[in-house]
Amino acid sequence: MSPTAVTPPAADRTAGLAELLASCVSDPARVNTELPRRIAAAHDASPYLFTPQAVVRAASAAEVGALMAGARRAGLPLTLRSGGTSLAGQAGGDGILVDVRSHWRTATVLDDGRRIRLQPGLTVRQANARLARFGRRLGPDPASESACTIGGLVANNSSGMNCGTQDNAYRTMESLQFVLPSGTVVDTAAPDADAALRAREPELHAGLLRLRDRVRDSAASRATVERLFAMKNTMGYGLNSLLDHSDPADVLAHLMIGSEGTLGFVGEAVFRTVPLLPHTATGLLVLPGLAEATDALPALLAAGARTAELLDAASLRVAQQSPDPVDEVRGLCVDRHAALLVEFAEDSAEALEERVAAAQPVLDRLPAVTGTSLVRDPRVRARLWHLRKGLYTAVAGARRPGTTALLEDIAVPMDRLTRTCEGLIGLFDRHGYEDAVIFGHARDGNLHFMLTQDFDSAPEIDRYARFTDAMVDLVLDAGGTLKAEHGTGRAMAPFVRRQYGDELYDVMREVKRLCDPHGVLNPGVLLEDDPAAHLSSLKSVPEVDPAVDACVECGYCEPVCPTADATTTPRQRIALQREIALATAAGDDDRRRALEADYAYAAVDSCAADSLCVTACPVTIDTGAVMKRLRAERHTASAQRAGNATARHWGTAVKGVRAALNTAHVLPAPALRAATGAVRRLGAGELVPPWADDIPRGGPARPAPRHPAQPRAVFFAACIGSVFAAEGTTGGASAAFLRLCERAGVQVTVPDELPGLCCGTPWQSKGYTDGHRTMAARTLEALWRAGDQGRLPVVCDASSCTHGLEQLPDVLAEPDRARFAALRFVDSVVFTAEHLLPALPALPEPRRLTSLALHPTCSTVHLGIDGALRTVAAAVSDAVTVPDTWGCCAFAGDRGLLHPEITASATAAQAAEINSGTYDAYASCNRTCEMGMTRATGRPYRHVLELLDEATA
Predict the structure, then answer these.
(1) Spatial contact of 158 and 152, defined as CB atoms under 8 Å apart
(2) Residue 390 DSSP SS3
(3) What digits encode the pLDDT tens for the residues 825-879?
(4) At the N or C end, where does the chain have fewer CB atoms within 10 A?
(5) What is the rounded distance in angstroms from the CA atom of residue 307 to the CA atom of residue 583?
């Protein structure tokens, strides 16, 4: 820098970067340089943390190419991010972070499911859901399939429990479309792909030919590549592509697999799929020790076992601590034992029986200490798999607050598996990792080990460094690979040279130089010359709240979060709490204030609080519940008193809201919008929604009391059906349910106190805890009396309210909680499926619908009643379609009214899918969800019971 040069202020640099990046995309709003958004996006599933200078949501291959060029001009690195579930640091960077998930979720099934074309933002589970109807699935089957995306599957060359090395991403990829740092787009599905690459990238094309021949002509290099890639191996670049393929375009496409975003961006991939094998038999074989377990593997695999998962003694002890351990480990005095979770799977029941019968002699010869029986019952099998998959949950959830859960993986030749396991156990003892466990895909010699580590002190980091060095020695001395499935990332990048040797490391360096000559893409990932790089930029995990301290930032919650594309995800809400704590501890008031100011809306107010996150979280964190608590904590005493008063006079309040809505529909809309806008600006933004023309009129009064002689249930008509009128003229779900009961000859009681009762969800959601307790006590007491002290089930006609009723006892003191424990709450669709449908006449063909679009709700997921909902829907329609892109609509009571942008984002994909087809009717089972989907699609969503009522009238 010359003596007269002046460094521009940080704000000017940020503005200049934002302007540069905005020129690379069609919508500048997709470029964000604000501190809270950059920090939220920085956190991934790895122990590393890099805060980007900008976050950009790219929407096309051309935009990604332009952003790569922009990064080069800005002198900044660029990192591609999709699911952020990678464990080794490959999904984070301190330059430009490009989100390639939000706008990249298209899937096209080809050849009746034998192939599928996928974009990088779709999760593996979402892709498999599209294939399931064809009896197919993707070959790779990673345990993180609910959250890991196709982008990560390609970038890490994912495999899994069953796929081995023959069905991983590398082997099942048919073609790729990718963008090079130069901006060149390569589509290897094109017949002239290689000629086009040679014309557009002559140096790269020629360089790949040289490298191909260099490796092939060296007997030592060839032998090393063949040895390492005979195992699962994601360490370094996939140099086996130089042996397996000849044309540079094919070589480059296969080098992209496992390249961790360091060579280019894969915008589309076509995979060959594998058959689903629906008939399975599973057994947990407990053996005296590791040697006996590994000795059993060759015969079991030869007998046709498709899965063989190894669990060491420490894993079995963890499994025994489960509240309800499986029989195989219950009461076992674990010493040096090990276990194999073995599964046989075939495409028919007959084939499975033949396979198991042929394997029985092998099973009988095993020295199993608890038997060798195989089970077919899905519920029992699920418990066995829960034991295996729950190890991560158990260890991560029980770790000391402030520590990080590390999940590493290696692979060694099968004949060295026992020795390596024993060596790892010795290292755990030597370095003080008392809670470490070993499990893994034994059929592939692929071991996972999990330990917890504190990165906040130099002695702890030194302990981790010494353990890592010893582990590297152990694995490489066994002829193994330091990364089998999880990718090299930053964690193992300094050890690539040692695993491959100088010659092949130089080949990898040349691959990187040819593809990315300016070193823009993900520097420090996969290749790193600094021997201590894996010990820097480690994440600090401060204690912030016992309810969230167990979070491992894995990102499993993000695919089910309805605000993921609008504001923040559960992972980000927790990460931002941790960042606020770190800023507070550091005395960085400016950073703390910026984060706190943003958090109020981006985290707390915008959260739908549907708690689907807890259904996906491996350590069962309910971030929605935490956000509701934070809402409660910011309420003043006067606000709590007002909430309590509303609960005490709820019947009057509902009448008032109904009257106000009916009055609003006769007033000029511009005046209403101005009035509600003014009230919101005065501080009622979380109480009064902005007026919209699609807000329904007030609904009918709740049903009048009924006291039949022989009731089968108590009917609790949800107040939401009274607040908001239903679509059509049937009177809504409550009236429909009562008519169905009459038609089926089923009598129900309606409590006298019903107008003043509620499930409590409005108070719970908004954090009015006093009002919630008041309503809980009143409602449960009334239902207790009406239901003959719990003898009769309580049936509710709105799924979110059924869920709310289930949670009501939790807010009461223990004596009352115990008294009301006998109350049973049943959703109306379940009651209809079980008690009304069998008594109703079969629908004549002319009265059946041809097609029905169905929207399950977040509450039907929590209640486990999606099956009943589909049963009722199938009773009225020949074809019932739940969109592949289904998710929570985020209407969340009034949340979608207060913050319509949240529902618009949450429903965008499923609305587009619904509107791409035509259906005779549209249904759900919750009034506000029906409102949200009606708003999103422009189609009239109604309660499914209204459709059944009309069809059977």
Answers:
(1) yes
(2) helix
(3) 999 999 999 999 999 988 877 789 999 999 999 999 999 999 999 999 999 999 9
(4) N
(5) 47
The pLDDT, as a whole number, for residue 168 is 96
DSSP SS3 for 74: helix
- The pairing of strands 31-32 and 78-81 is unpaired
Report the mean per-residue pLDDT for the chain.
95
**Gap between the Cα atoms of 220 and 224, Å rounded:** 6
- Scanning 375-453, the segments in alpha helix (DSSP H) are 378-398, 417-431
Q: Enumerate residues 6+ apart whose C-beta is below 8 A from 386.
A: none
845: which 2 tokens?
């063909």
Q: Residues 515, 241: contact at Cβ < 8 Å?
A: no
On the question of pLDDT at 1 being above 80, the answer is: no
Angle, to 10 degrees, between the axis of helix 944-952 and the axis of helix 732-744? 40
Nearest-angstrom CA–CA distance, 219 and 515? 26
pLDDT in tens, 403-421: 999 999 999 999 999 999 9
Tokens of 897: 């009214």
pLDDT average, residue stretch 313-336: 90
Pairing outcome for strands 849-854 and 921-924:
parallel
Residue 5: partners with Cβ closer than 8 Å, 6 or more residues away: none
Q: What is the arithmetic mean of pLDDT over 726-733?
A: 89
Task: Read off the amino acid at residue 448.
Answer: H
Sign, CA torsion 237/242/243/247: positive
First to last CA, the chain: 84
Q: Which of 9-18, 102-111, 309-318, 801-810 has the lowest mean pLDDT?
A: 9-18
Measured from the Cβ of residue 731, the count of other Cβ atoms closer than 10 Å reads 18
Residue 222, C-beta contacts closer than 8 angstroms, at least 6 positions apart: 215, 216, 243
804 neighbors 760 (Cβ within 8 angstroms): yes
Q: Is 891 strand, coil or helix?
A: coil
In sequence order, the 6+-apart residues with CB closer than 8 A to the CB of 252 are 186, 197, 204, 208, 263, 515
Pair of tokens at residue 533: 């790089």
Report how far residue 433's alpha carbon sits from residue 715's, in angstroms, rounded to the nearest whole number: 56
3 state SS of 10: helix
For 55-99, what is each residue's pLDDT tens digit?
A: 999 999 999 999 999 999 999 999 999 999 999 999 999 999 999
Beta-carbon contacts of residue 945 (< 8 Å; ≥ 6 apart):
733, 736, 737, 740, 797, 828, 829, 832, 872, 925
CA–CA distance, 253 with 196 (Å, rounded to integer)? 14
Query: How high is the pLDDT of residue 9?
Result: 60
Q: Is the pLDDT of residue 818 over 90?
A: no
Which token pair is 518?
């300016």
**Is 114 exposed, middle or buried, given 0-12, 13-18 or 19+ CB atoms closer than 10 A?**
middle
Q: What are the tokens at 652?
A: 């009057």
Tell me the C-alpha to C-alpha distance, in Å, between residue 429 and each of 24, 426, 455, 456: 53, 5, 19, 22
Crossing angle of helices 570-586 and 623-633, in 10° steps, is 50
Q: Could you tell me the CA-to-CA distances from 793 to 660, 690, 715, 789 in Å, in that order? A: 34, 39, 9, 10
From the list 750, 540, 727, 763, the residue with the least C-alpha distance to 648 is 763
Judge residue 825's burial from the number of C-beta atoms within 10 Å of its C-beta, 0-12 exposed, 13-18 middle, 19 or more buried.
buried
Q: What digits encode the pLDDT tens for the residues 619-672?
A: 999 999 999 999 999 999 999 999 999 999 999 999 999 999 999 999 999 999
- CA 159, 165, 167, 172 dihedral sign is positive
How crowded is residue 324: how many other Cβ atoms within 10 Å of its Cβ? 7
- Cα angle for residues 97, 102, 107 (degrees, 5° grid): 125
Angle subtended at Cα 805 by Cα 800 and Cα 811, rounded to the nearest 5 degrees: 120
Distances (CA, A) of 588 to 13, 467, 585: 21, 34, 8
Other Cβ atoms within 10 Å of 677 Cβ, number: 14
